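COURSE: Structural Biology Practicum
ASSIGNMENT: Worksheet 4, Part C
STUDENT ID: 0417
INSTRUCTIONS: Below are two proteins. For each, the amino acid sequence is given first, followed by its structure token string. Answer the questions at the end about the second protein only.

PROTEIN I
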Amino acid sequence: MSAIDMNTAMPVTTAVAKPSLLRRRPDIVLGPLILIALLLAWEFGVKTFNVPRFVLPPPSDVARALYAGLTQGTASGGFWYHIGVTFSEAMLGFVLGSVLGILIGFALSTWEMAERTIYPYVVAFQSLPKVAIAPLFLVWFGFGLESKIILCTISTFFPMLVNSMAGCRSVDPDRIDMARSCCASRFVIFRRIVLPSAMPFLFAGFNMSIVLSMVGALTSEFVGSNAGLGMLLISFQNAMQIDAMFALLIVLMIIGFTLNRVVRFAEQKLCFWAHRSNKNA
């Protein structure tokens, strides 16, 4: 924007004030401030009201327990060893459950008779609490890695099945008819039309499934395991080490947040057209 200076008759550029960081990225400014305020209130509240440490430890004790657990390296008593066990269980189950959910979801969405026959059984099995069927898996597959992976696979399967079916049904039928009129094969129609249209739904399923895979791994470790964060939480509970339990909860929150960010980053790179359409809407 420019104006004319009456004395010099020269154009003068009017400076536009740049929005502050608080207006541009309030999450960067307000997020840490809220966290600091909560931690300070927690620390002084526990000490002021003399809350027992076995009920609610102050953040300083939780920080010391977190540091002690993370500095033990990959030893069997350290956090990193159990993080690796739980993470491997969750990721293997996530991959298997996602692949099965996508394949079966695409098949059911294109085969109406199979959907009417099989889908009610899938919904009925999914309605079972995972804690109820976890002991059966331990009996059938033992305390090893197999039972944990199977439970994680079941936990991630249903969200991917539902989202893949919704993604296939979201395709505009006119686009498929036009492709068929141009003698396009079924594989070309799937790769060029169906899969791109279903990608936003698939990533919505990934966002849910990757968190549910961690929940499935922890649930199986709660029931019975020799290693993992779930087993470690039960051990700290039995020993009344509440500060260490809070430290593990922080680790789980960091893992869940990181996995969610990884999926969202992949979504922005692989499904960029959906984000552009949302911005233009």
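PROTEIN II
(use this one for the questions)
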Amino acid sequence: MTAASLNHRDLGLISGRLKRPLPITPFSDGCGVVDAIGPGVTEVEPGERVVSLFFQDWEAGAPDKEKLASALAYPLPGVGREYAILAERGLARAPDFLTDQEAATLPCAALTAWQALMDLGRVRPGATVVLLGTGGVSIFALQFALAAGCRTIITSSSDSKLAECRRLGAHETINYRSNPDWAAEVVRLTGAGADLVVEVGGAGTLEQSVRAVKIGGEVMVVGALTGRGDYNIAQIITTCVTLRGLFVGSREMFSSMCRAIEMHKIRPVIDRVYPWSEASTALRAMERGEHFGKIVLDFSV
């Protein structure tokens, strides 16, 4: 392994919040070089640079129980180690123009954003997409939506982070701390509401996400950073909104995403890089929400 990127799921596993048995080998997103291959392996060769896929057994098609049981970090050992034994179909090549650190950010956050927008959402040029916060999934979604010709609206509690979003190309930004009814602001900006929201907050933001989309719009639920809670289901019925849950994606989706990244020369946004020996410091930084984009661990130092 040469690099690994952090996700909020890692915090949940390490802290015990996700209530999975310890010990675990953490981290699910990594980049490395093939050192050796087993009998019958044909798709990779020693010396090749590859990235780990979040699901080791979801090659293509719809998800099922078996595919979703093959996630790295839990239940399978993750990539937070010097050498990792991974399935042939649990590896993929990243675009050559990306560094190892950049490539390590793709398997989870980037693919989640890709499935939400392109594979399931099937957004078209001119569609309005709302993104919540400035973590890895939302920033990748911003980059993909812009490449697809969409109008983008992104939220944050930090004006400096919103300024950085505008520098990346965001069309509209909303500070949800100074404007807590951000759904109303989305409707004001769009007239009828957005076409799609990438929902990373969960129970604490779902009501506003549903209010932010137009009648018949879509809310892609990809995270639960604000925890769990009750929700008024009547709001979905009366607005005819599609509420869709999704969980990262398949190897086939990853390959499609990488072709788009290559074509548009999209570079992952990395907030900071820590030596692997400072993983605990990196995790605390993620927990405080200090980052913009991704946090990466470097295994080469």
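ANSWER KEY EXCERPT:
Q1: The mean pLDDT is 95.
Q2: The two ends are 12 Å apart (CA to CA).
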